[in-house]
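TA notes, week 10

Several of you asked for a full example with nothing omitted. So below is the full record: C-alpha cells for the whole chain, then the designed sequence directly under it. When grading your own attempts, check the secondary structure regions first.
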C-alpha cells in the first residue's frame, strides 16, 4: 500500500545547471528505487530565501508529489539529508482532501492561462 506525500527541496544556489539536473535526477532515482512513483513535479528554479540558510540568500526550489510505501519515507528522508547540496527539505503527508485540492488548483491554473492572441490583431 502506498501513501501520498509532498517533498519540498531547496538546493544549493551555487550548483551549475548540469549539477542541478544530476542532483534532481538522483533524487528521482532514489524515489523509484524505494518503490515510489512521482505523480506531480514543480521545479520553480532560483528564488530568494526568506532568511539565510548556510550563508545562502537564494535557493533552487523543487516540489514533488509522490506515492511511496509509508515504511520507505524515512529512508527517503535519510537519503535527502545525506546530500550536502540540498540545503533544506520538507516531507509532508497528504490526506485525501489535500490531494483533491491540489488537483483542482492545477486544473484552475491551466484554465486561467491566457490564450494565444496573435490572430486577433486588427
Amino acid at each position: 500500500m502506498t501513501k501520498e506525500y509532498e517533498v519540498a527541496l531547496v538546493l544549493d544556489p551555487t550548483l551549475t545547471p548540469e549539477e542541478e539536473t544530476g542532483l534532481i535526477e538522483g533524487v528521482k532515482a532514489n524515489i523509484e528505487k524505494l518503490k515510489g512513483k512521482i505523480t506531480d513535479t514543480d521545479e520553480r528554479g532560483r528564488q530568494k530565501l526568506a532568511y539565510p540558510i548556510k550563508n545562502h540568500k537564494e535557493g533552487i526550489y523543487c516540489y514533488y508529489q509522490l506515492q511511496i510505501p509509508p515504511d520507505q519515507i524515512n529512508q527517503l528522508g535519510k537519503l535527502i539529508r545525506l546530500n550536502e547540496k540540498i540545503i533544506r527539505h520538507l516531507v509532508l503527508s497528504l490526506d485525501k482532501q489535500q490531494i483533491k485540492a491540489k488537483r483542482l488548483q492545477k486544473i484552475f491554473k491551466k484554465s486561467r492561462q491566457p490564450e494565444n492572441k496573435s490572430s486577433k490583431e486588427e
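The two ends are 58 Å apart (CA to CA). Use that as a sanity check on your answer.
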